Structure formats: structure tokens, C-alpha cells
């Protein structure tokens, strides 16, 4: 049975994946190339600097360390502009209800996100208190598909990864969760998340 539940943030709990995409696309356009939603799938779940590296690959561009720092900062500034206006209405369908349902069943809950903006987003949405542990991009060194984020989250919950279920919308996240030894529920389309143990369209589908 599930003793712990570990949730990715962007694209699972809150509809911020679109803002990451808009901010990355704006950067690409500024650099002079197109960046499609299909290209963007490769960035989901991936850390900020690794995302930038993939984006530059797509544009066939090179940049030195200082330039990359600057580009990442520009993207993040635009992204933070979006999320500082985030509303509760942008919580994904069933997300808050499912967290509350699991809590009522005694399941321990962690966040497992690559984002350095995660704590800010949880505060902004008023859902920080629903989590027993928050593991985010400020706490982990290795980006998904490395299992570090989910191993750390299960450890912070005091649970064996095998007793935890991970909820993920990104292929890299599903891979990371499997590598950690967790069960994985993919949130989105089976075409992209085929490696998950189960795929649903949204957390609302899991409510009783
Ligand atoms: C999540 C998102 C990625 C994002 C990463 C880092 O995993 O799915 O798209 O690049 O977090 O987010 P940050 O807010 O730190 O730039
Ligand atoms: Mg995600």
C-alpha cells in the first residue's frame, strides 16, 4: 500500500509548465530561433541550467559560462514575473483535493521538484501546509532523470522508496522515479509517459 506520495510541482499540481515554456520560447526568439512545444517536452522536469543547454542545442548555438548564467537569469526573471501573479485557479483540477484526500488517509506527502521557485509557488498558492517535506531545486544537486530528488524525498518522509508513489508529468521525472524504486503515476499522455506504472489525465481522475 502507498505510505508516501511524492508530487512533482510544475504540470502536476499547478499549471506553470506553460509559463516555463513561454519564458524559454521568449529567450529562444531573442536569440533568433524558434522553440516549439515539442522541443519543450525535453525540458520538462529538467533543471534550469540543463534546460538551457538543451535549448541552445536546439538552436545550434554555443555560449560560454558567463553568457549562460545571463541567459538563465533572463529566463528566470520572465518566469518569476508570471508566477508572482499566480492564482489559486491555476491549481490543476483535483490537485488540492487529492492532497487533502491522501492526508485524510494518513499518507505522508512530499514535494519532489527540480524548481528553485517551488517554495515561492507553494506559498503563493497557500498549500505549503499540505506537505510533510519539500524537496526542491535548492536541495538537490543532480537533475532528473537522476533519482536523487525522489530518494531524498522518501528519506525525508522516513519511508522506503518502494512504499512511495511518485506523481509526474515529465518523461525525465518518470525515469527518475523508476530509478529510485518508486511506483509512478504519470499525469498526462501515455505517448510521453509510457514508462509509468499507470497514466491518468489529471489528479482529479484519482479522486474517489
Ligand atoms: C521543473 C520544471 C522545469 C524547470 C525546472 C527548474 O522541473 O518542470 O521546466 O526548468 O523545474 O525550475 P526553476 O524554477 O528552478 O527554473
Ligand atoms: Mg513537471
Radius of gyration based on Cα positions: 17 Å
Order of helices and strands: EHHHHHEHEHEHEHE
Low confidence ranges: none
Ligand names: 6-O-phosphono-alpha-D-glucopyranose, magnesium ion
Query: Strands across the major sheet, in which order?
Result: 3-2-1-4-5-6
Quantity of strands, as a count: 6
Write down the oligomeric state: single chain
Main sheet overview: 6 strands, parallel
Which SSEs are present, and which pair or pack?
Elements: E1 4-7, H1 17-31, H2 37-41, H3 48-58, H4 65-83, H5 95-104, E2 108-112, H6 118-125, E3 133-135, H7 148-157, E4 164-168, H8 171-180, E5 183-187, H9 190-193, E6 198-200
Could you characterize what this model shows?
The chain has helices spanning 17-31, 37-41, 48-58, 65-83, 95-104, 118-125, 148-157, 171-180, 190-193, and strands spanning 4-7, 108-112, 133-135, 164-168, 183-187, 198-200. With 208 residues, the protein is α/β, with parallel strands linked by helices. It has a six-stranded parallel beta sheet with strand order 3-2-1-4-5-6, sandwiched between helices. The protein binds 6-O-phosphono-alpha-D-glucopyranose and magnesium ion (MG). The site of magnesium ion has 9 residues, from loops. Residues 10, 20, 43-48, 51, 76, 113-117, 137, 170 line the site of 6-O-phosphono-alpha-D-glucopyranose (G6P). Belongs to the HAD-like hydrolase superfamily. CbbY/CbbZ/Gph/YieH family.
Short summary of the structure?
With 208 residues, the chain is of the alpha/beta class. It has a six-stranded parallel beta sheet, with helices on both faces.
